[in-house]
UniProtKB/TrEMBL annotation:
The gene is repA. This is Replication protein RepA. Residues 190-254 form the Primase C-terminal domain. The lineage of its organism: Bacteria, Bacillati, Actinomycetota, Actinomycetes, Mycobacteriales. It comes from Rhodococcus erythropolis (Arthrobacter picolinophilus). Keywords: Plasmid.
């Protein structure tokens, strides 16, 4: 078991433990894990994974914890020092240099990362993750899939509250109101959000052209587009997440879209676009008229 020091008690007095982390916090049935990040990661049993230095804390479909990579020698101080802008993390697994992975456990409040019909929680989780990174000075390039295994003896682990958080409880003054959606700027959970948004916008009109084909061909087409979006990320998502996202989007559209619904949607978008264009043109005419009046007045004065 990993070395522990200075446990931080919650308001209820409970402190997370090795056993609780292994039994409740670690979600995947067969997590990816490794002892050396440079040599790749491999899926294995939970018992074998818990003996590794790095382990996948959440499966590709669910976000069970928000983990921040704090590449500072005073990572534990940044995580637990009070007063702070963020609630105390559930655990901090730090290397001998002091650099650490800081984790906040969501428990039953986990967030689905592959449900195209419920993007709002994922967007909010992305904003929460970003706010926590800002609060502790976290590494924005960290992908978040593998974390330092808190119960491995190579890490010095400090446990915090034993109770999970809701996303709302993790909001800080640093939580942004909006996030950039450009693929080349997306990191962490932002990659999932960006892939959803980019692929959904592309897939809606594409469905009309492929509606008479097979569902299997449609699934493959959407997967290809998700893969193309993924290649634009600085740190691409694992293929399992790309595939799960593609399946969620393709199946939802294939199941829910009909020709009548599609025509109604296009008519609605066209109506909105027409109104916007009309208003824009009206404003342009007003501006041009105003400029003409001002020019005419200046000439009259001269």
């Amino acid at each position: 078991m990993g070395g522990h020091s200075c446990p931080m008690k919650s308001a209820t007095g409970g402190v997370l433990s090795d056993r609780q982390w292994a039994d409740a916090v670690l979600l995947p049935h067969r997590p990816f894990a490794t002892n050396n990040l440079q040599r790749g990661q491999y899926r294995m049993s939970r018992d074998d994974a818990l003996a590794m230095r790095y382990v996948e804390h959440s499966p590709h479909a669910l976000l069970g914890s928000i983990v921040i990579d704090c590449d500072h020698v005073d990572a534990a101080m940044r995580a637990f020092e009070q007063p702070s802008d963020h609630p105390a993390p559930n655990w901090v697994a730090q290397s001998p240099s002091g650099r650490a992975h800081i984790g906040w456990w969501l428990g039953p409040n986990h967030v689905c990362r592959t449900d195209s019909a419920r993007l709002t929680p994922l967007r909010y989780a992305h904003r929460i993750e970003t706010g926590l990174k800002i609060s502790v000075g976290g590494d924005f390039a960290y992908g978040g899939q593998l974390t330092k295994n808190p119960i491995h003896p190579d890490w010095e682990t400090i446990y915090g509250p034993a109770t999970p958080y809701t996303l709302r409880q993790l909001a800080t003054i640093h939580t942004p109101r909006q996030m950039p959606r450009r693929p080349d700027r997306a990191v962490g959970l932002g990659r999932n959000v960006t892939m959803f948004d980019a692929t959904r916008r592309w897939a809606y009109p594409q469905w009309w052209q492929h509606r008479n084909g097979t569902g299997r061909d449609w699934d493959h087409l959407v997967l290809q587009h998700c893969h193309a979006v993924n290649t634009e990320f600085t740190t691409p998502l694992p293929f399992t997440e790309v595939r799960a996202t593609a399946q969620s989007i393709s199946k939802w559209i294939w199941r829910n879209f009909t020709e009548e619904q599609y025509r109604a949607r296009q008519a609605h978008l066209g109506q909105k676009g027409g109104k916007a264009t009309t208003l824009a043109k009206q404003e342009a005419v007003r501006n041009n008229a105003r400029k003409y009046d001002e020019h005419t007045m200046r000439e009259a004065i001269i």
